[in-house]
Amino acid sequence: MRLLPLLRTVLWAAFLGSSLRGGSGLRHAVYWNSSNPRLLRGDAVVNLHLNDYLDIFCPHYEGPGPPEGPETFALYMVDRPGYEACRAEGAGAFKRWVCSFPFAPFGPVPFSEKIQRFTPFSLGFEFLPGETYYYICE
């Protein structure tokens, strides 16, 4: 696996808890690849509410891909120090997803994170209203 130009690219999401919103959430899509200008500029901020979904789409190629090779990487949720240092290490960092199928026949591989206070899934994450969460990739 090669390191991407996205190594220093981060996505952070500020989660706002609002009791005025209905029970159904909105979907927010982020295409996590080196051609996404928001990621390249470093201003990929997504404001989410409880019950919203964050859909992250991995890099995908219909043909042979770029000459330097296809983009593959792991996405990590990190704490603020990990975000500022762009390091997926320490107690506040854990791997969320691996983007390793850039030639998937059905299109870009999506990973969805439901923003919820409680989760019934062992691999799910529980989000607190008003907190900020950070993602980086390696």
UniProtKB/TrEMBL annotation:
The keyword Lipoprotein applies. It comes from the Eukaryota. GO terms for biological process: axon guidance; ephrin receptor signaling pathway. One of its GO terms (molecular function) is ephrin receptor binding. It is a lipid-anchor; GPI-anchor. Transmembrane segments: none annotated. Residues 25-138 form the Ephrin RBD domain. Its main location: membrane. Gene3D superfamilies: Cupredoxins - blue copper proteins. Pfam families: Ephrin. It is found in: Cell membrane. SUPFAM superfamilies: Cupredoxins (SSF49503). GO terms for cellular component: plasma membrane; side of membrane. Keywords: Cell membrane, Disulfide bond, Glycoprotein, GPI-anchor, Lipoprotein, Membrane, Signal. Residues 1-25 form the signal peptide. Cell surface GPI-bound ligand for Eph receptors, a family of receptor tyrosine kinases which are crucial for migration, repulsion and adhesion during neuronal, vascular and epithelial development. Binds promiscuously Eph receptors residing on adjacent cells, leading to contact-dependent bidirectional signaling into neighboring cells. May play a role in the interaction between activated B-lymphocytes and dendritic cells in tonsils. Belongs to the ephrin family. This is Ephrin-A4. It comes from Diceros bicornis minor (South-central black rhinoceros). The lineage of its organism: Eukaryota, Metazoa, Chordata, Craniata, Vertebrata.
